């Protein structure tokens, strides 16, 4: 019985359902864009508004808004309203860890 359970668990781990496959591919798509990587890397350091992100990264506000919408739809970032300002921060720490590991890997000699 224990052997059968282990075999079933192994088979479940090997199979990838369509929804998971789509989400994984979309997450890699998000991480394939240099502007989104820059935004996510900045957000890993703290909460920022669209204007703060645009100013810090020297990007147009419309570009930042567009990229944040894309990242928010994938649940990679979340927003918080404070008065008239909206602040963004990472929502998925797993993806942020992968991103930081890839940055470290790229910078490692």
Report what the structure shows.
- This protein is of the alpha+beta class and 109 residues long.
- It has a single domain (2-107), classed as Winged helix-like DNA-binding domain superfamily/Winged helix DNA-binding domain (Arc Repressor Mutant, subunit A), CATH 1.10.10.10.
- 66% of the residues lie in helices and 13% in strands.
- The protein contains six helices and three strands.
- It has helices at residues 2-14, 18-30, 34-43, 50-57, 61-73, 93-107; strands at residues 48-49, 77-82, 85-90.
- A three-stranded antiparallel beta sheet has the order 1-3-2.
- Helix 4 (50-57) crosses helix 5 (61-73).
- The N and C termini lie far apart (49 Å).
């Amino acid at each position: 019985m224990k052997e059968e359970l282990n075999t079933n668990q192994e088979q479940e781990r090997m199979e990838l359902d369509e929804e998971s496959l789509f989400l994984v591919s979309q997450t890699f798509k998000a991480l394939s864009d240099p502007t989104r990587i820059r935004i996510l890397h900045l957000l890993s350091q703290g909460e920022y508004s669209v204007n703060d992100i645009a100013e810090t990264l020297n990007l147009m506000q419309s570009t930042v808004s567009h990229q944040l919408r894309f990242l928010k739809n994938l649940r990679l970032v979340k927003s918080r309203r404070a008065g008239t300002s909206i602040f963004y921060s990472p929502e998925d720490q797993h993806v942020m860890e992968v991103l930081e590991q890839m940055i470290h890997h790229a910078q490692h000699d």
